[in-house]
Amino acid sequence: MAIADSGPVTTRPAFSAGILRISRDGFTHGLLWTMLLLLYLLSGVLTIATGNLYRMGLMSFLVLPLLLVRGLRIDRIFLAFTLLVGVVLASGVVNDSTLTQILTFLRIPIFAYLVYYLISVAVNADNIRRILRFLLIVATVQLPIILFQWWAFDKVPDSFKMNVGIVDWGFGTFNYKTDYSMSFLLTLLVAWLLLDPHRSSWVRFRWPLAIWYSLTVFVAAAQIMKVGVVLMWLIFIVTHLQLRTMVRIAAAALLLYFAAGALYRAGGLSEDPLQFVNRLQTESNKSNPDRYLSGSYDRWGALWYFLSGNVAILGDGPSTYADPVARTQTRGNNGHFFTFISEIGPVGWLASVLVYAAIAFPIRRGRIRIGLLPLLYFVLINLLSFTSAVMNDMIRACEMKTLIHSNVLDAMVGGEK
């Protein structure tokens, strides 16, 4: 019986494709963990070791080879970033900004998008728990590190401090002088542990961790995130009105109160909470737009200035009031909100809010999901934008990256696909 010749069997192309896919995936996840280590553990040390020459934002360029290999993902987040870039260009044209000024400002959305792109292609259901365990460990060690940094402040040579006060010296393992990034991550984790028990049920000691992270936020210098973490606990109380839960909350509140009081008396707390509230009231009463216009930090003066109608719809032009290379500024634009409003106008600021919204609220089965946690994350990132440049470079884009982690968790952990 004759057997038909089926021709030579060729498996090399399929084998080569498999090897290429494995190599690409290996590079992707290697890059992801490199970035996580840089963002959460090594950035501050590298900044001090290089005498402030190290720039975390430039590390986002490591994502470019991955972008070339995998190609762009044309999704709604990419379109939101594209809209923001378009507004920056329009503002530059209207205000006759130089090419250098436009390109300097464009680093903000470009760096942030590269971080988003890495997370969108690298984080999946197979590694999300490992990433979250890493974040939980990082968050847990911040408090003793902050206290050690403050204790060692007077013992460290001035050349390492780079004209930084003791308050900004407590940055933990995060980037130099970015305690707000640390506090933002901690606040998100508190919200996740308290308000998403189904998807955080695999975490051991959820209650002790939520209390520990809350205490760390109160010890750190980022005052606005203290408001955020109190908000998380208040929402938890309102949504969990049960006797057992109320007993736990009361115990947690007492523990936080006595721990914070002890740390404040020992000099380990940057500011008493009541002093913080009084200081906000004092600042609002003493606000002066002239201080803001002279380059000093006066958020209330800046708000009064903008509310008085002193703002153009497309701003005064990108990078008009700041030089990131020389690290100088001619207006007190300390914070994403004030920078965007003054330089690219309300339209530019709204475009950035659209980016936050696109990241915070996922689309599943053709519908935008606006759940409690995504809504809280969206509120927190906008709250922080009044005091911090949350989209300004890679470590600030880290906060947005944390939002993306939460959305991936919401989609993948706990069995919901």
Give a short synopsis of this structure.
This protein has helices at 12-49, 64-70, 76-94, 99-122, 128-140, 142-152, 158-161, 166-169, 179-195, 206-219, 223-239, 243-265, 273-285, 289-293, 299-307, 336-360, 372-384, 394-412, and strands at residues 322-323, 328-329, 363-364, 367-368. It is mainly α. The protein has a two-stranded antiparallel ribbon.
Order of helices and strands: HHHHHHHHHHHHHHHEEHEEHH
**What is the count of helical runs?**
18
- Poorly predicted spans: 1-12, 14-20, 393-406, 409-417
The count of DSSP E runs of length 2 or more, i.e. the number of strands, is 4
Rg for CA atoms: 23 Å
The portion of residues assigned to helices is 55-70%
Question: What's the rounded overall pLDDT mean?
Answer: 77
Q: Structural class, from helix and strand content?
A: mainly alpha
Strand content: under 5%
Main pleated-sheet profile: 2 strands, antiparallel
Distance between the termini: 53 Å
